[in-house]
Backbone:
């Protein structure tokens, strides 16, 4: 790629010795699962960002095919616009970058192509390649949704910030969604566990929620959202078993 800043798709937040900076895992978990990270951090990775990783320099994500939901934390520098352009063409996934809203890359591929943006509250603290915490990025960050499914995931993520719809269908969707509001995944999963006696297996939760509007709205990834939410709102008491606190 000929780009030294942000190797592995992870931006350089401050001037330090390393060029590899990892996205906080909580952000990826809140928005996932993802099928592909086309510019993943070098191996060994302390955590996965997607089911499949293209890792520079062995794999050039700008040349290889993209598929499914993509997680993109592109290298920060001259190649940023090229990565965002490919993401816009792909049209399914979420990008994470600094909020350089005045730049040509942002105007060409975010303002004009994306469906929604979540401006994050505060400044994100990245991680070193070994997973240890690093300092904050020194600039505001933004999550960029391409496609209706990723807009919904930004809305449901619980990540603090301000959501801005960029396309008319998304604006209408946001307006309609307000009345009546669809319950959050936390509420849905807690209610399902309560209805099953306060303790439930993942299989029982899947059966109870397979026809729920939230499951249908999340498409093929709804079971992953149930698993992630159960791990947050309930205590794991056995393999695949969760119980609400008394």
Residues:
């Amino acid at each position: 790629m000929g780009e030294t800043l942000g190797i592995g798709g992870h931006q350089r937040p401050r001037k330090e010795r390393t060029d590899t900076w990892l996205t906080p895992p909580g952000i990826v978990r809140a928005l996932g699962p993802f099928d592909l990270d086309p510019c993943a951090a070098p191996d060994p990775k302390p955590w996965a960002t997607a089911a499949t990783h293209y890792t520079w320099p062995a794999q050039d994500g700008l040349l290889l095919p993209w598929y499914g939901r993509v997680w993109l934390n592109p290298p920060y520098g001259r190649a940023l616009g090229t990565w965002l352009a490919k993401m816009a063409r792909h049209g399914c996934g979420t990008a994470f970058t600094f909020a350089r809203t005045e730049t040509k890359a942002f105007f060409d591929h975010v303002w004009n192509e994306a469906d929604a943006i979540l401006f994050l509250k505060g400044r994100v603290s990245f991680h070193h390649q070994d997973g240890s915490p690093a300092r904050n990025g020194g600039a505001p960050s933004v999550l960029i949704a391409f496609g209706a499914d990723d807009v919904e995931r930004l809305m449901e993520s619980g990540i603090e910030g301000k959501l801005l719809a960029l396309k008319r269908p998304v604006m209408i969707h946001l307006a309609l969604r307000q009345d009546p509001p669809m319950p959050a995944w936390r509420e849905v999963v807690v209610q399902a566990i309560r209805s099953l006696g306060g303790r439930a297996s993942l299989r029982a939760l899947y059966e109870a929620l397979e026809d729920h509007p939230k499951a249908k709205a999340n498409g093929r990834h709804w079971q992953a959202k149930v698993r992630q939410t159960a791990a947050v709102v309930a205590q794991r008491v056995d393999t695949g078993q969760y119980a609400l606190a008394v």
Summary: The radius of gyration is 19 Å.
